[in-house]
Amino acid sequence: MLILTCPYCGVACDETELSPGGEAHLKRFGPGSSDEEFETYLFHRENPKGVHFERWRHAYGCGKWFHAARHTMTLEVFGTYPAQVYEPPEDIKAAITAKVPGWSWRDFS
Amino acid sequence: MSRYSAFAIAKEAFREHTGWRRTWGNPEPKRRYDAIIIGAGGHGLATAYYLGKNHGIRNVAILEKGWLGGGNTGRNTTIIRSNYLQDPSAAIYEKSRSLYEDLSQDLNYNIMFSPRGVIMLAQTEHEVRGYKRTAHANALQGVATEFIGPERVKELCPIMEIRGPRYPVLGGLWQPRGGTARHDAVAWGYARKCSEMGMDVIQKCEVTGVRSKDGKVAGVSTTRGEIDCDKLGIVVAGHSGVVAEMAGFRLPIESVALQALVSEPIKPCMDVVVMANTVHGYMSQSDKGEMVIGGGADGFNNYTQRGSFHHIEETVRALVETFPIISRLKMLRQWGGIVDMTGDRSPILSKTPLENCFINCGWGTGGFKAIPGSGWGFAELMATGASPLTAEFGLDRFREGRFVDESVAAGVAH
Predict the structure, then answer these.
(1) CA neighbours closer than 13 Å in the CB half-sphere of residue A1
(2) Is the pLDDT of residue B1 over 80?
(3) CATH topology (fold) of B22-82+84-109+183-251+344-410
(4) Using CB atoms within 10 A of its CB, is residue B262 exposed (0-12), middle (13-18) or buried (19+)?
(5) What share of chain B is helix, strand, coil (3-state, %, to 5)?
(6) Under a CB-based contact definition with an 8 Å cutoff, are residues B231 and B358 in contact?
């Protein structure tokens, strides 16, 4: 069972307490953007067999959105962090590099 | 290759069954093929078979990183139905179901198609209305279904408790020619025929890269060397994103784990397939007597081929209410498959940004029932560049907003 620690309330919660929210760090495109940009924003998704960044909501707890760094093949959790950032914090990146040297995800590595 | 028949069994009985030959070959990859299919699951093998049978393209290799039919083809709950709401879905699934009817004869391999009938239970007023609408749509599409009342549901499946306190059975969408088939045999039967046509089914051969030249596909790099091809078909279900990345394009797909489980075998008690979408569960009885149960998919990306325990708990809890008889059953096995979910929950059978490279994916939780129809349409697309079966399932529908809005109609047990 997947266990993630909510970065706001510090509770280690199992997945029944959480709602998955899909890919993290999406750049939003709205009116005035091209068809390609809008398609990419709405539909194209990273689907790696490896390191992945996701949004989760502590639905049956504090109710807040947060981010998680996870491995989709081993289900190992590298860390969780608050949602008010544009990219993963350095300590999370370092934790991933320690376990998965040479990883990359979108423009991050 | 010898033909399977009662006569052949009798003949072999006289020589102590020493004359049977390998069902399919185990060839070394050649340097070049007219067409390469990545993925020897049901959809990949069916594509190769119809490329040869309908379009005369027989210099074909089917590459498989593991073993034949070892992915979702061997991991599903074997249900076959075509009672879909939208015209494009009904067309391809009904083509598929109708091909299943005589597939054993066509392949000369017993796939044990059993048109025992499929009921989709309506357990809320909304479902009653939804399924009546589907029944009317199916009548226009030429798919034989009807909406039946609770008494008829009870008659077809006596072990069901239709007055369940929480979700009483208010009726059902009944497709009498839906049913089940032996899933492995579908892959084996297609592989045997492909092999017989001179195609190379190459197992333990993982594709590690896709080579292109001037915007056209040139070949693939594999763990067993470089192979050139004119046309490439990517039919790898859950790993579509991984192979698409090699070919240089992205997909509107996320891979999640979908689970199923079977009980210990019991005496025959249920001769129809029952799906209950409101409570997220479906059940049928296999020929061995096991109750085959399918449940919900995880909500997060996952390549582990196992799923979250709480989905099993939810599925079984819901089914026990509708089928009190199973409350004491022990469950024998549980497993998961990696399903490729698209933005609109409908499949993608399409050309790609790379010329002569085609992709067949996104079947999500409903791939097994579609194997023959998907192979038929995708082979036509690969051979001629267009197919009426696949026209609405192009990749560009996401940019243009032409979704095949079937998830509304099918919910979880797609």
Answers:
(1) 13
(2) no
(3) FAD/NAD(P)-binding domain (3.50.50)
(4) buried
(5) 35, 25, 40
(6) yes
CATH classification for the domain delimited by B118-180+255-342, as one of 3.40.190.170, 3.40.430.10, 1.10.760.10, 3.30.9.10: 3.30.9.10
| Cβ-contact B252, B346 below 8 angstroms | no
Average pLDDT estimate for B236-250: 92
What is the pairing mode between strands B273-276 and B225-234?
Answer: unpaired
Distance CA B269, CA B95 (A): 30
| Chain A: residues touching B (Cβ < 8 Å) | 1-2, 15-16, 19-20, 22-23, 35-36, 38-40, 42-45, 47-49, 52, 54, 70, 72-75
Question: What's the number of domains chain A is made of?
Answer: 1
What pTM was computed for the model? 0.94
Nearest CA in chain B to A39: B399
Residue A70 covered by a domain:
yes
Q: How far is B410 from chain A (nearest CA, A)?
A: 20
What is the predicted pLDDT for the residue at B275? 93
The per-residue pLDDT for B410 is: 47
By residue count, chain A amounts to 109
